[in-house]
Amino acid sequence: MQLSDFNFDLPDELIARYPLETRSASRLLHLKADGQYQDHHFTDILDIFEPGDLLVLNDTKVMKARLKGKRATGGAVEVLVERIFDQTIAHCHIKASNAPKAGAELFIGPDEVKVTVTGRHENLFVVEFSQPILNVLDQYGQLPIPPYFNREAEAIDTERYQTVFNDPTKLASVAAPTASLHFDQDLLQKLEQKGVQKTFVTLHVGAGTFLPVRTTDIENHIMHSEWCEVSEQAAQLIAETKARGNKVIAVGTTATRATESAAQACGGKIGAWTGDTQIFIYPGYQFCVVDRLITNFHLPESTLLMLVSALSNRDNILNAYHHAVASKYRFFSYGDAMLIDKAL
């Protein structure tokens, strides 16, 4: 399939650069298994989901991963911490007038915390901080909100670019699992009262989620690597849900990638698994776990648009997206939501 097969026109004014006042106030476009779609409010999932269905949520937490600093010569730099390996070693993206070489020293904040570049790992820089990284991020970091917001992180993002159920011990993502941003505690409680179960998996979202696909033939695209974990408890709940004929509802593409990666690693059936995943889901992929997907509206020609096209099909998705544009749905991380049923 060609990259151009996943293009559509999106007016700039439909990009949601700020969240709604209430998390669960978003609209919801339900794309059904037969390709028909229906407009809803997000809270209508209370009527759509059945007792015994299972929500699979990603409990990662977003780091204040963006650091602004300078080189020894005074030139401005920006460091985006992608992955932390121990207290002081990390893989990072670095924006500078020219790429720093091994041995280069960067300085963060008024206290000039030293960051030394020690080498490269693929497209990332390997760096060593002179102080514990999480302390530096807490003191000087900014939330790495998506580039298409075209603004700096603000106070509202501190709360709203995190899920209400994030696990503080899993502070490792550089982007939010944005489908989960629609859930508030009241909605989660009402779903529980109805008998809709939930479980958590973890996938630490990397900045690669925002990288464009640069190959004309999408099968030549190589996905970025992200760490994920599906626990024994989560795998058991998923297996029990499938066995009794209820729906497994992945909340977001990250929960989808985590569960499908675990299933692939376990021979096609869900099982406990921890590791790095580079799973690339595009049309033709046979889903092992996910029956339904709650997700936001994605960028043209993105791997996320390809993933949702695999669960439904490309024509169904693009038809629904054209309707969403015409109906002025809000797009991307702070935008409205879709509920996509696995195609017949």
Automatic annotation (TrEMBL):
GO cellular component: cytoplasm
Residue intervals passing through the bilayer: none
Tagged with keyword Lipid metabolism: no
Pfam families for the chain: Queuosine_synth
Annotated compartments: Cytoplasm
Catalytic function, reaction form: 7-aminomethyl-7-carbaguanosine(34) in tRNA + S-adenosyl-L-methionine = epoxyqueuosine(34) in tRNA + adenine + L-methionine + 2 H(+)
Gene Ontology biological process: tRNA queuosine(34) biosynthetic process
Record EC number: 2.4.99.17
Main location: cytoplasm
InterPro entries xrefs: QueA, QueA_dom1, QueA_dom2, QueA_sf
Domain of life of the organism encoding this protein: Bacteria
Listed GO MF terms: S-adenosylmethionine:tRNA ribosyltransferase-isomerase activity
Keywords: Cytoplasm, Isomerase, Queuosine biosynthesis, S-adenosyl-L-methionine, Transferase
Pathway annotation from the record: tRNA modification; tRNA-queuosine biosynthesis
Similarity annotation: Belongs to the QueA family.
Free-text function comment from the UniProt entry: Transfers and isomerizes the ribose moiety from AdoMet to the 7-aminomethyl group of 7-deazaguanine (preQ1-tRNA) to give epoxyqueuosine (oQ-tRNA).
HAMAP family the record matches: QueA (MF_00113)
Protein name: S-adenosylmethionine:tRNA ribosyltransferase-isomerase
Species for this entry: Acinetobacter gerneri DSM 14967 = CIP 107464 = MTCC 9824
Name of the coding gene: queA
